[in-house]
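ok posting inputs for the nicotinamide-adenine-dinucleotide job
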Amino acid sequence: MLVYIAGSGAMGCTFGYYISKYTDNEVIFLDNWDKNIENLNNNGMKLTGKIEGSMDVRAMKPSEATEKADLIIFLTKSVGLEDMAKGVSHLVDKNTQILCLLNGIGHEDILVKYVDLSQINMGVTVWSAGRDNSGDINVTNIGTIDMQNIGGNEEEGRKIANILNEANLNVTYNEDVMKAIWRKLMVNGTLNSFSTLLECKVGEFFSLDSHAEIVDELISEFIEVAKADGVELDKKEMLDYIYKTSVHTKDHYPSMYQDLIINNRNTEIDFINGAVVEKGKRYNIKTPYNELITKLIHAKEELKGSKLF
Ligand code: NAD
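and the output
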């Protein structure tokens, strides 16, 4: 089986490494960043942190790849997804399955322009990794992946889950993957957004007097919009999950903070709080907290002159 990693950054490299190392499948790493491709081809891939290892890999631009894909795993940032989906469309035929593991919601609306719904698997992961200046990948959490074929093609979805489990990626075929995606969305839409806006660690935001009311209002909006979108979430369960996560991650600066404050790159806010605002409009639900957060993050991007990628 030929697997393309579409977006070979921190997460793409981590998952591609595991698939190459533990299964017989061929993996090709796609990216549009010349320096990254050159580094992967000339120096190989090096993983540090929770897993130590290195291997030679093949990397190229999407336009340079020619063989049809059996599986394409999308791991760009949200802002790069449409461009990547277009860029790999020549690698897709009717037997190709795709798996999208980006943070946020609404990615399937982009992907369905390029492939049939029965070829789309959506997922969410709590693995985590970062890429340092030399290109090495620092794996910071050995996590899990929840995934499901959202076009009713369970047989193909389960085949992918089995392959990724063979690769030791700890995958669950989740028959209600949208619930898992929304659950992580809420964590990202509170911890990540406020840590970035206020330029503070997760625990610092959760120690502020104002945090409880903000989190409560925000989560109410998420839950109302999710329900209108067909995803039932329990408010108490979601708040417990968010507070528990805030304790584990109290000393962390989340990935949105890393993107905007450290790396001066645009955030994925339009696929997190912004996506809730857009869905809310569709269902005639007001989302003032999500709307303000989205606008403030965009204002901060503008002030800092952050780059798209
Ligand atoms: P990253 O920035 O390290 O990697 C993204 C890669 O995609 C980059 O190498 C970039 O050059 C490439 N890319 C982007 N657009 C492209 C395009 N149009 N064509 C070709 N290449 C393109 O990002 P990451 O940290 O690996 O995150 C990927 C996704 O996974 C994001 O949605 C993120 O929120 C999610 N996620 C990340 C983590 C984490 O710990 N890093 C954890 C869970 C989920």
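notes: The chain has two domains: 2-174, 178-304. Residues 7-12, 31-33, 36, 62, 75-78, 80, 83-84, 87, 102-103, 125, 128-129, 131, 255, 268, 309 surround nicotinamide-adenine-dinucleotide (CB under 6 Å).
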